[in-house]
Structures
1.
Amino acid sequence: MAVFTPVSLDAAAALAARLNLGAVTELKEISSGIENTNYFITTERGEYVLTLFERLTFEQLPFYLYLMKHLAQRGIPVPEPQADAAGEILHSVEGKPTAVVDKLTGSHQLAPSALHCEQVGAMLARLHLAARDYPRSQPNLRGLSWWCETVPAVLPHLDAGQRQLIEDELAFQQGLAASPVYATLPRGPIHADLFRDNVMFDGDRLTGFFDFYFAGVDTWLFDIAVCLNDWCVDLDTGRLVEERASAFMAAYNREREITHHESRLLPALMRAGALRFWISRLWDLHLPREAQVLKPHDPTHFERILRERITNPWHYVPDA
Ligand SMILES: Nc1ncnc2c1ncn2[C@@H]1O[C@H](COP(=O)(O)OP(=O)(O)OP(=O)(O)O)[C@@H](O)[C@H]1O
Ligand SMILES: N[C@@H](CCO)C(=O)O
């Protein structure tokens, strides 16, 4: 499991007291996730998630935490950060930036149907609209600049065919980002990592989005593309499952009508979404950090998805 920084019961109890959550009855390591140290913490007042941020800094974190608060206050089901008496929601444990947020109910839907995709699509559009008046700004820290910095570091670990693919795709995405049509895409705060394991369902009903720690201001279309590449693919082949993708897009489009330019660039952004996670998975696999136990995700999954998106681009045509 990915506990990078062990937290003692005493340290958790001191933080819970500061947040007025009552006595801690249980502190349990969370056995998934690869970015942060996470614990479930049960107190007299309820169930929460305690996160020690391993990469994000005290300067970067207010953007994510206040975004979650902003969305929660507008009815989007996301974990709300807990404040101390002074209203502070960013804390410190073992010298690491730390937050305690509400634990969502439900569990992951790892084999989604069109019905699940439809709910994720609709809620994603509502999230984009609800975040429009969020006053803080921070770029997507796993966007194009990060891809350009990171590709050279992973290149030595690739074979010739993979090197060619990643360099060609990076050049394609740089050209796209510099194009006038790209500049017309609507933007705002996006989740940017809304995979199956970052959404909760209670039975077939969506109960929440979480893990906002890759959020940033970027195109709404990139968020849509990241979701399509995870929620609407056959995991064995990386192929898009048309029925799920159409259900996702139609539901999104009902909440916020996508523009003509968005429809046109969707195939290119789906390539961008695949490239982003291919790079980050290569980086996590080949340049790992210390962790008590760490299970890196398989990079070849996103290499396959990227090749598939290039060979078989998918176009969404809204119903007339
Ligand atoms: N607010 C929450 N409510 C309920 N469960 C949560 C919450 N936050 C995290 N979890 C649980 O903890 C697990 C790990 O958390 P998360 O996915 O955020 O890990 P991470 O290391 O921070 O990020 P990543 O997903 O990027 O690896 C989740 O899969 C989920 O089961
Ligand atoms: N969703 C990412 C993990 C980081 O959140 C992946 O599947 O590679």
2.
Amino acid sequence: ALYSNPAGLVKHEYDFVIVGAGTAGNVIANRLSADSNVSVLLVEAGGNDAGLPALQIPFTASTVLSNASLIWNYTTSPQKALNGRVIAYQRGRVLGGSSSINFMFYTRGSRDDFDRFADVTGDSGWSWGSIFPYMLKIENFTTPVDHHNTSGQFNPSIHGDRGPLRPTLPGFPSSLDQRVLATTKVDPERFPFNLDVNSGNTIGMTWVQSTTGNGVRSSSATGYLHPILGRPNLDVLIDTQATRVLQTGSRGSIPIVRGVELANGVSGPRVTVHAHHEVILCAGAVNTPQLMLLSGIGNKHDLASLGISTVIHSPGVGQNLQDHPLLASAWSVNSNDTLDGISRNATLAGEILEQWETSKTGPFVDTGGNLFAWLRLPSIFSGKRDPSAGPTSAHVEIIPANEFISFSGDPTPANGSYVSIITGVISPASRGSVTLRSANPFDTPVIDPGFFTNELDVAAMVGAIRTSSALLETGPWKDLAARPFGLLENATTDAELAEYARNSASSFWHPTGTVKMGTSSDEMAVLDSKLRVKGAEGLRVVDASVFPFIPASHPQAPIYAIAERAADIIRSQLYERVGE
Ligand SMILES: Cc1cc2nc3c(=O)[nH]c(=O)nc-3n(C[C@H](O)[C@H](O)[C@H](O)COP(=O)(O)OP(=O)(O)OC[C@H]3O[C@@H](n4cnc5c(N)ncnc54)[C@H](O)[C@@H]3O)c2cc1C
């Protein structure tokens, strides 16, 4: 049943209590409750996503980021290497979590990313080869809405056709598509074509795959949760925040943590629920460490300074935050075929919306660029420690878009036509943290992604901007006569481009790594390789926090995949336990 107030819960004991109905949480809830003998409570701080068009239209996804009722409204701490700027740091706060508000790029990460997870955890189950079946299990790869011929645009043999999620290819052509493809022919050394970046080798220019099957957002809520809301063994509690996990006993010196304290507001009554087997934290890379710290699981010195008594001293909780810095640069172009008109002309936007509403076709079915590139820039790292996982992982990302795009809040200029290129540092060397501001669970945590604190990331971003300019100078783009726009106009030397990046970069909103898994000898690894909290019984974490390194990828597909494996691990351990 669906509840919206903890006071209304009929039961207070379940086999599993899952905190966070986001990307990973809904996978776990779905797979565990598939066994009708297993009872599951899924708790979500946000509300219901169902029937909200703002969440469904791919093209206008960014407008959700100003809808305070669907997000956590976080900002970063002042970023010293971004000249002290504070960056908006959005997370989804609604069924589906960030999969309900993200930009829907669907990328699995690289073979080297996953093989590195296996290496650093000593668990071959995280290797690319072992995780690949879960990648297939996630998907029902869907024909694009315009039914165009997709041969040469992806490799169907490496995709699934029975999973809950609906990735697809672009469903509306962009006039940039042919230019991008032609670039891969005239300059294949710099811009090689990659038939399918979801093969394990991510390098090259490729067609975007996105979770927009049938022209609407496909999220963990639409794919994994709504179809199973009728299961009698699953209760879903929305508009309710977990404020602490609670120690419910001990086994020798090991605390048993099978309680969760819930509240639906700062002054709402606290309600406690218990798990017979496990509490599973799926609150994301910001809120999972926050909740652990609030519960006394963290660095004992930091906890003491906030008056929180330590249940488990685990210095890695909240550390190792990794994210991808993003920068949107615009060039003015000689073209009358860009999408800039949509944001300037309400009548045109209304017509396109009507087309989407009536037939789920037209420009609104896609998220932005139709092709993008992941590239390696080895010269930047020569003689330095390359932060990427290996040759199949990119250093930088380049997404050309046929319109003016700004992540700094700048509106589309009143005149002119624009091409934007979004660049990202996709194997960053910088590290940050999530810490508590206070012991109040309703206080915002301190989020410090540490953007550009490692100079290698600035150099990579400068390299990505230079590569973008080079792209626009190749033959297929020449007639556009692209001219740098805005702050980019006055940045030509490496030092000026670095300063431009420091003044303009923001986040891809891919925080990961804050509750990392690892070996028993790694003191900073909070979890063992089966995602159990070390030093506790009954507590596990499954979400973006668990990655020891950020995948060189948009992270939703890797998160779905690790959640699928985690569900299998939990089920097998449950049956072992039941069999004991
Ligand atoms: C704007 C934006 C664009 C993005 N674009 C892309 C993209 O194009 N492609 C891609 O692959 N990735 C993208 N991402 C990243 C991706 O969506 C996230 O990495 C991923 O969804 C995180 O999954 P998760 O399970 O770790 O957390 P989430 O999906 O964020 O789930 C956490 C859930 O826990 C809930 N919660 C938190 N604290 C509590 C609490 N105390 N009690 C109860 N519930 C709680 C939250 O409300 C949320 O629903 C984007 C993210 C954002 C924000």
3.
Amino acid sequence: MGRMVDGAWQADEGGTPGPGGQFQRPETRFRDRIAPGTRFPPEAGRYHLYVSLACPWAHRTLIFRRLKGLEGMISLSVTHWLMGEQGWSFEPGEGVIPDAVNGARHLHEVYAKAVPRYSGRVTVPVLWDRQEGTIVNNESAEIIRILNTAFDGLGAKPGDWYPPSLRDRIDAVNERVYATLNNGVYRAGFARSQAAYEEAVRPLFETLDWLEERLARQPFLCGEAATEADWRLFTTLIRFDAVYHGHFKCNLRRLVDYPALWDHTRSLYQHDGVRETVDLGHIKRHYYMSHPWVNPSRIVPLGPILDLDAPGSRRVAPLA
Ligand SMILES: N[C@@H](CCC(=O)N[C@@H](CS)C(=O)NCC(=O)O)C(=O)O
């Protein structure tokens, strides 16, 4: 891992822990929107998405690109699974899509093109604008909102995954799921003290219990329709038994031990085109090989065996 300081790459070991050994996630830097009449108007063929198939935050944006049928309008690069000394790269490998826009070998070159003296972390996802030659946004929560509506006038697939009538409910679920689960798995896995680890794992499983109870009563997190909140949960849960349970020590229970959550995960996985966005090979190799301070042998476990194709019972559709 590493970071940029004044436009130059510097290797490090995954950020600075807090005083109690807690993992601290830094703020993202590029926060613009795509909207008519702005510096970044909606246009087919203008924007490019950089993702890693391993990363749950980038995975959200890949899913929204698919849900909204934007493959023909927004081009894609996929990094190599290994995040090594130089950070994310486009070294050849199975599933890697090289950077045809900027010709970068490493993602940090893309950040340096946007801001030559950039200081900060070099993360995926990145939404790039070919015309201005810069980064529009590198915050997944915002990129999925952009993809959800910005291209609707240009022929994106209909469907609002963040409908006004459900926003309060979606925001409330997102807040808890982000703090204790999406980011909670990292707080557990990157903790540098026993106390920091336990402080992360206990609320994480309280949230899983709370979600299980909710999904036993209703098909989706905010009621009868699937929403953004379900997709934000999905990208963490699809990685749960394969990496967070072992590599990040989130092991009080497995996802498959929660019948409703496991059914919900499979239902989303089986929704139109979503399984093609899931690459457990990239996911497992990335985590087990990229964090040598967590897994010094870099051995990638063979299991678990997961039957993701066992039929899920929920009919995934946004609010009509
Ligand atoms: N807030 C960002 C977080 C993205 C993020 O942390 N991505 C990780 C991969 S899972 C990354 O690229 N980390 C590299 C680093 O921190 O150096 C988002 O949600 O878009």
4.
Amino acid sequence: MSTLLEMSGVSVSFDGFKAINNLSFQIGEPELRAIIGPNGAGKTTFMDIITGKTKPDEGRITWGEKNISLLGKSESQIAREGIGRKFQKPTVFEAQTVRENLAMALRNPRGPFDVLFYKKTQEGADRIEAIAEQIGLSDALPRLAGELSHGQKQWLEIGMLLAQEPRLLLVDEPAAGMTPAEREKTTEMLVNAAKTRAVVVVEHDMEFIRRLGCRVTVLCEGAVLAEGSIDHVTSDPQVIDVYLGR
Ligand SMILES: Nc1ncnc2c1ncn2[C@@H]1O[C@H](COP(=O)(O)OP(=O)(O)OP(=O)(O)O)[C@@H](O)[C@H]1O
């Protein structure tokens, strides 16, 4: 596993308040990583920094085998580098079918106007089938996305992100609002997605985190408080104090 993204000494202040405080973080490729921490710990700001939405005041962020700097790149340039982000609320095209949603999301080397053409090619159709299977929506391909359950919409959006073949996928609270069965399927999906890429999951649900079976980073006051296996971090007295023991 080689390092894909490395942050070092990153700080961001909002009106004098240090939301991220000298934060260092590394993720490999492939790797699955969970991020936990109390409200206001800086989890969202951390993802905003990686995607270029928030510019750090200090620090370095390097990416890929050439260690290029992500600082100074725009949000769309960072997305093109292969960093995808799934927000908490699903944003799928409700009036389109599952198949059309996936077709739109497929990376298309011929430019945006050939999406319909691409959809009709065998390669495009095969890719759509493969992604639908990965996200458990093979039978739902002809259905309108607006008719899907909340959990299925989340999976469709994960599928749309996977269609773009990100090297790093950031996922914000995927388990929120899901049934226990949906949570279990989501765990499986993320574990599988992380076999070939880096996946960072921010989540409050500790059972969900435990099932991911991955390294956990605990953020607190904008810095890493603890890092390691779920058993390691959940037995750390400081983590119990600021997060688990609430
Ligand atoms: N644009 C902003 N302007 C001012 N303060 C901000 C801004 N964005 C975040 N903050 C502050 O920075 C701190 C970290 O916020 P952030 O949303 O990153 O935390 P979080 O760990 O994602 O919290 P939660 O679990 O509640 O989503 C908070 O105190 C928040 O109020």
